[in-house]
Design a protein that fits this description.
- Strand 4 and strand 5 form a beta hairpin.
- By secondary structure, the protein is of the alpha+beta class.
- 19% of the residues lie in helices and 30% in strands.
- Helix 1 crosses helix 2.
- It contains 6 helices and 13 strands.
- Strands 4, 5, 6, 7, 8, 9, 10, 11, 12 and 13 form a 10-stranded mixed sheet that branches. The protein has a 3-stranded antiparallel sheet with strand order 1-3-2.
- It starts with a strand and ends with a helix.
- Among the domains are: 62 residues, RNA-binding S4 domain (Structural Genomics Hypothetical 15.5 Kd Protein In mrcA-pckA Intergenic Region, Chain A), CATH 3.10.290.10; 97 residues, Pseudouridine synthase.
Length: 298
């Protein structure tokens, strides 16, 4: 679905998501917000927030796939449940596993596996993403939080938003870092030339990443990354922007025949339990394919 329309006098002063919904009432407001947040609906060819107030004569453009009816069904999927109680799960997602069904991947996802193994999941994100509080890219491995009820979901999502949920990643990057640690703060938005990619830009959403070098090899660097925001592809884009793409990243760097994707692993997560308020933290060792690659470098 692709096109555009111009804001008229009767629509000025109204929110972008509201006006788009007036033109396309078959779309839910939440779906429209997601499309705006992901850059599929733009104002004057710029990514803005769904609550942006409109002016007469402005151009609203859109370019996205039509809605495809999907239903997530239980499947026997291999992944590790690190922790589980009445409110939440901590899972260790393997590389290559898509988090939830979408137009290109309708089955064989983490959500399909969760529906098979877990009785209750929060319904805030609907039938395609039950329990999913935050995501990892298909080829990024490691720890994820899953909510079993809406109370837990709202609490965990709020902690991520307020940066009180701590998430740390380990990545092997190309080249040798000049600094032993650093702070990256800029803006990311969807690439206009390739909608599958994100780029550093003067507009878009603020993205903040801290990094610390763990070990330096002859032409590669093992690095710990801490997220203060959780933008799509954030660490991968920031690594490319620094000139040190992640090893095996076939989108922002180059593919390697011995690898199925980027060497990026979510190894640490810390949060306050939604019900008990206890501070909890979990760690996950590097997956076998990552550790074996490092062993060869040694």
């Amino acid at each position: 679905m692709k096109g555009y329309f111009t804001v008229d006098e009767n629509e000025k002063g109204k929110r972008l998501d509201v006006v788009f919904n007036l033109h396309y009432p078959d779309f839910s407001r939440s779906h429209i917000k997601n499309l705006i947040d992901q850059g599929f609906i733009t104002l004057q060819n710029k990514t803005v927030k769904s609550g942006e107030k409109l002016k007469s004569g402005q151009r609203i453009s859109f370019d996205f796939q039509d809605l495809v009816p999907l239903e997530a069904r239980p499947e026997n999927i291999d992944f590790e449940i690190v922790y589980q109680d009445q409110d939440l799960l901590v899972v260790n997602k393997p590389q290559g596993l898509v988090v939830h069904p979408c137009a290109s991947t309708k089955e064989g996802t983490l959500v399909n596996g969760l529906l098979e193994k877990v009785k209750d999941l929060s319904g805030i994100n609907g039938v395609l993403r039950p329990g999913i509080v935050h995501r990892l890219d298909k080829n990024t491995s490691g720890l994820m939080l899953v909510a079993k009820n809406d109370m837990a979901h709202l609490s965990l999502a709020e902690q991520i938003k307020n940066k009180t949920c701590k998430r740390k990643y380990i990545a092997l990057c190309e080249g040798v870092f000049k600094e032993s640690e650093g702070h990256i703060e800029n803006f990311l938005e969807r690439s206009k030339s390739d909608r599958k990619k994100y780029v550093v830009s003067s507009t878009g959403k603020k993205a903040i990443t801290d990094f610390k070098v763990i070990k330096t090899f002859s032409n590669k660097t093992l690095v710990e990354f801490s997220l203060q925001t959780g933008r799509t592809h954030q660490i991968r884009v920031h690594c490319k922007w620094m000139g040190h793409p992640i090893v095996g990243d076939d989108v922002y760097g180059k593919a390697e025949k011995s690898l199925k994707g980027q060497l990026l692993h979510s190894y640490f997560i810390q949060f306050s339990h939604p019900r008990t308020k206890e501070v909890m933290h979990f760690e996950a060792a590097l997956p076998t394919h990552f550790q074996e690659y490092l062993d060869k470098l040694k």
